[in-house]
Design brief:
The complex is a heterodimer of chains A (244) and B (195).
Chain A lengths: L18 E2 L2 E2 L4 H22 L7 H21 L7 H18 L11 H23 L17 H13 L1 H34 L1 H37 L4
Antiparallel strand pairs in A: 1-2
Helix pairs in contact in A: 1-2, 1-3, 2-3, 2-7, 3-7, 4-6, 4-7, 6-7
Chain B lengths: L1 H20 L13 H134 L5 H18 L4
Classes of the chains: A mainly alpha (244), B mainly alpha (195).
């Protein structure tokens, strides 16, 4: 059954079945990799934060560079008003990045290749950003759908388009990450299958392609985490600094 | 980005074809069996991650960064201060050197003046001494000159007397002898331009 390229996305129970009423909350391989990613982040950054050298060593440098990287990303896209949301965006970026990267290890499970995970994250961001927008600007936040400088004749059409694009944000955000991860991993599995089926004679070409794909997938893993975080910043920017 | 998106679309279509051709088709992602479990564990893990990061780890990192920034600023400030201090010191040093140079010049000038005046004083005294000595000597010479003819006269008349005595054996009138000698001397002095 392992020849099926979609097999790697199967979720299965680890340990006993946990049920509350009719709801199944069992610990699965997906849960395992969420825990592993979170623990890895906490361990690395805890080690980095414990040291207080003026000239940092490697692990301290890693955590401090990540800190400044995310902090710069936020201040560049959403301005200084977004500072209170730094911790959330940092956690989000690191969580998605580590889940993507752990997914690159053979026989592991990619948490972010599941639409439900990315959709929950994206929906949370969408709802949160909308609430922040309404708290900051009241009903003035609806001005987001009415761009300035548009002829009145076109306005009804533009407003409808703006509303649809706004509502499709969580879907585009979640599907982007999910599709990228799933497509990449499926591709690698398919080429792995080709290596086996073509054997010692013809298997070298798909093998070399597979090696190249691994590099590309590592790039994509980082890039998608970055895109996810930066889109969150952009949405946050819309909610904080309402100017269209 | 566009290239990656295009590639992804290609992958996607490729994969759906691959999946459809597979015997057990369908994506496990769309099977809702474990959706609730995934949401539940995602909330727990991400929530814990967020809480621990925001409450404990990130403040410490930001404190470290801030401390380093402050330390660097402090170092720059002290360096600036020390530079200013050293510039001041240099200025003071230059001033001191200038002052001491002027002083040295002054000291040299006064010393020279003193020496010169002393020398002239001594020279004048020496001149005076010399002059007085010369005058004395001249006086003495003049005196000697004045007195010498008389003495010579008396000596000459005495000698003449004696010579005559020895020659003749009798005393001659002294006054006549001296008159004779005087006459002779006058002749001599006249022939030698006289004094």
């Amino acid at each position: 059954m392992t020849a099926n390229p979609m097999y790697q996305f199967n979720v299965y129970r680890i340990g006993p079945e946990i049920k509350i009423g009719e709801i199944d909350l069992s610990f699965t391989n997906a849960s395992l990799f969420m825990v592993i990613s979170s623990l890895a982040i906490l361990i690395i950054f805890n080690l980095g934060a414990q040291k207080k050298k003026i000239i940092p060593d490697k692990i301290q440098l890693l955590s401090e560079l990540s800190y400044t990287f995310v902090s710069k990303m936020i201040s560049d896209t959403a301005g200084s008003k977004a500072k209170p949301y730094f911790s959330f965006i940092f956690s989000l970026f690191m969580f998605v990045l580590f889940c993507n990267m752990f997914g690159m290890i053979p026989y592991s499970f990619t948490v972010t290749s599941h639409i439900i995970v990315t959709f929950v994250l994206a929906a949370f961001i969408f709802i949160g950003v909308t609430i922040i927008g309404f708290i900051k600007h009241g009903f003035g936040y609806l001005k987001l759908f009415v761009p300035s400088g548009v002829p009145i004749v076109l306005l009804p059409l533009i407003v409808v388009i703006e509303i649809i694009s706004y509502l499709s944000r969580p879907i585009s955000l979640s599907v982007r990450l999910f599709a990228n991860m799933m497509a990449g991993h499926t591709m690698m599995k398919v080429f792995g299958g080709f290596v086996v089926s073509l054997g010692i004679v013809g298997g070298w070409l798909p093998l070399s392609f597979s090696v190249a794909l691994t590099g590309l997938e590592i790039l994509v893993a980082f890039l998608q985490a970055y895109v996810f975080a930066i889109l969150t910043c952009i949405y946050l920017n819309d909610a904080l600094n309402l100017h269209h | 980005m566009k290239k990656i998106i295009l590639l992804n679309i290609f992958y996607f279509s490729f994969c759906t074809v691959a999946v459809k051709s597979a015997e057990k088709g369908g994506m496990p992602q769309l099977d809702p069996e474990f959706w609730v479990s995934q949401i539940f564990w995602l909330t727990i893990t991400f929530g814990t991650l967020f809480l621990v990061l925001s409450k404990f780890i990130l403040p410490r990192i930001s404190k470290n960064l801030e401390q380093r920034r402050l330390q660097i600023l402090e170092n720059i400030e002290t360096a600036e201060k020390q530079r200013e201090q050293s510039e001041k010191n240099l200025e003071e040093f230059d001033e001191i050197i200038l002052k001491s140079k002027n002083k040295a010049k002054e000291v040299m000038l006064t010393a020279r003046e003193k020496v010169v005046s002393e020398i002239t004083k001594k020279k004048m005294k020496l001149d005076e001494d010399l002059n007085s000595e010369i005058q004395n000597v001249e006086k003495e010479i003049i005196e000697l000159k004045l007195s010498s003819p008389k003495k010579i006269n008396s000596i000459a008349s005495n000698i003449t007397n004696e010579v005559i005595k020895r020659l003749i054996g009798t005393d001659v009138n002294e006054s006549s002898v001296s008159a004779l000698v005087e006459e002779e001397l006058k002749k001599l002095s006249r022939s030698t331009n006289g004094i």
